[in-house]
Amino acid sequence: MSDFTPPPSVADIGVYGLGVMGTNLARNLARHGHDVAVFNRTLARTEHLMARYADEGDFVPAARLTDFVASLRRPRVVIIMVQAGAATEAVIDQLRELLGPGDIIVDAGNTFYKDTQRRQAVLKDTGIHFVGMGVSGGEEGALLGPSIMPGGTAESYDRLGPMLESISAHVDGSPCCTYVGSDGAGHFVKMVHNGIEYADMQLIAEAYDLLRHVAGLSVPLIAGVFRSWKDSELDSYLVDITAEVLDRVDPATDEPFVDVVLDAAGQKGTGVWATQTALELGVAVPAIAEATFARAASSSTAIRAAVRGADMNAGAGGSGFKSDEDRTAFIESVKQALYGSKIAAYAQGFDEISTASTKNDWNVDLGAMARIWRGGCIIRARFLDDITRAYQEDPGLASLLTAPVFTRALETALPSWRKVVATSALAGVPAPAFASSLAYVDQLRAPRLPAALIQGQRDFFGSHTYHRTDDPRGVYHVLWAQDGRPEEKWD
Fold it and tell me: Active-site residue numbers?
């Protein structure tokens, strides 16, 4: 067993937790000229890192936590890269006994933002800064340049920022890292990022399903369609990897790889958090919610089997394409529907961030969030350049849908989008994220919604009151149970 005895106060930053993500983040920091203290609860992982990667930079390994902390220069910075939840809580408790005022603990896991707020409040009295930091890009991003979303105090970013910006992805010379806001802002933005990721993936999956089961294309042909979209406004990392997944042939069966994968999508909770939080904030995020529900439905194998076995005349028919020209036109319509739905999904995500930012006094720069998502992260895409410019031109946008570039795009997409949603319903091919995103846009465009009837129903059965169009500030109730049902104004 190695007995690492690091010299005191030499490391710029420490990484606690040397799984794949922690190891790659430490390597990334070392490659960029930072002296990195490394520690893991089990010494074997520290030994493994040093045996394989010691020549990549200046690592300062430690076998004991006290030595790890002692090796850090002040103010000391420790990035925690362990499993979210109890493990992270335990590490924070250990570190708070060894660190002091001005030092910084960074939680770089997928942590629920309210847990981050709670931990920050607990540590505040000790003088230790607590940073909730979203990191997107997976194992490859951690090593080669992720998108980084740190929250916490502005003072902590003064110490952290230069190091984090140096290791992040860069687009057009700009780092994909910026200060997000106080306490839980960083983890909140990462949560919403993941919610948008859920929506983006579901929309792409629905496009694939429609191309296969309505347009009748083979899997290799669909891969070619996605590759062709790289030269359009749909150019993105997710579209790129979709083509690669669809191109793959399973070596055991010579069948398309996608056909041998069980159609039950997993999830780790961030989509659920984003949906639940939106409900708490009163923000509509139907694309994110439907994507989360779609994963749940796909994993409900027993229910799916029972419904498939039921004697149900669904009345669904095929596409009815009479020519290759019709099929080609439908493919283009799917492309337009995908882009329109993507715009709607991102608008929902940014609305959720904006609402939470106002509520929590985070002052999140929405344009900066779009900018740092252009590289390193899973949802990186060409059209994030348009979102960045839209917020630069008008930081007070009520919705992304009102930005001229997206208003024009939606005007073009809507006719095709409607046809695709209608065709999917007639063909019995589920497209819940396409349909809910279209309904979301139509709800916001409608001059009047049936919510007026719902308010009338609520007033009838629960005396919940309502506002009148000719007196929006007044509060009214109808005495439904009395003859003549007179209306009265409530204070």
Answer: 190, 197
